[in-house]
Structure formats: C-alpha cells, structure tokens
Design goal:
5 helices; Rossmann fold; alpha/beta; globular; 18% strand
Length: 143
C-alpha cells in the first residue's frame, strides 16, 4: 500500500511555532516518525509539505491512480480552501484528515473543516500519534 502524506502551511515550523500547542519536536522529527510508523505497518509513505495552496491542490490531483490513500493535514487550508476540497473530490483517492491539535477545542474559525467534507475519517488531538492512527487505519482496511 502506498500512502501520500501531505502537510500544509506552517508545519515546516514545528518546534518553533506555538510550542505550547504543537510541542518542541520539529518537522524533521515528524517525517522520521511517519517513516518509522509506516515501516512498522508494512506500508510505503511519501511525505510532503508546502506552504502553497496550489501546490497542495496539484499533489492531491496527482495522487489519483498513483497512491492508495492520502493522509492530509491541510493546516490552515482545512478551514479556508474550497480548492482543496474540490481537488479531493476530483482525485477520488481515499483521504484521512489529520490534525496535531483538536480544532474543535480551539478558535471558532477552526471548527469548520472543508477537508472533512471529503475525508473518510478524521484523526486529531493526539500530536504525532494522529498520523500514526491514520496510517494504521488505512493499513487495517487496505485503503
């Protein structure tokens, strides 16, 4: 099984950005964590990060037929991007939404998720383990 793990804006700033919310581990730590979890599950994970909405849309579109599933932390685009939602619908690649924190416990504008409108499941509020949960979920169901 081949899973595309996509990360949106500001996740490259993990360890620096609001450590009281996101912790002290870095984006490099996250990439290593995902690699270890994927290997343990016997799945292939390709991890990418961008601060650009159009790049995220391109990657989602390119997933069609190339990946069995997407694990997506669209970050701020979760709450603002109809373009990401439309790309997810068009690609028709199974998607799990992931968040390090619990958006429903944060600012009111974070309670709307366009990604959730196309995702099969959401994993949130467990830090890096939200990614592990999504990978394990796809591995268990064979995407």
């Amino acid at each position: 099984m081949k899973i595309l793990v996509l990360n949106g804006p500001n996740l490259n700033m993990l360890g620096v950005r609001e450590p009281h919310l996101y912790g002290s581990r870095t984006y490099a730590d996250l990439v290593a964590f995902i690699g270890e979890k994927a290997a343990a599950l016997g799945v292939e994970a390709e991890v990418r990060q961008t601060n650009h909405e159009g790049t995220l849309v391109d990657w989602i579109q390119e997933s069609r037929g190339a990946f069995d599933a997407i694990v997506l932390n669209a970050a701020a685009y979760t709450h603002t991007s109809v373009a990401v939602l439309d790309a997810l619908k068009a690609a028709q690649t199974p998607v799990a939404e992931v968040h390090l924190t619990e958006p429903k416990e944060r600012e009111s504008f974070r309670r709307v998720s366009y990604v959730a409108m196309a995702a099969e499941k959401t994993f949130s509020g467990r830090g890096f383990d939200s990614y592990a949960d999504a990978l394990a979920w796809f591995a268990s169901k064979g995407a």
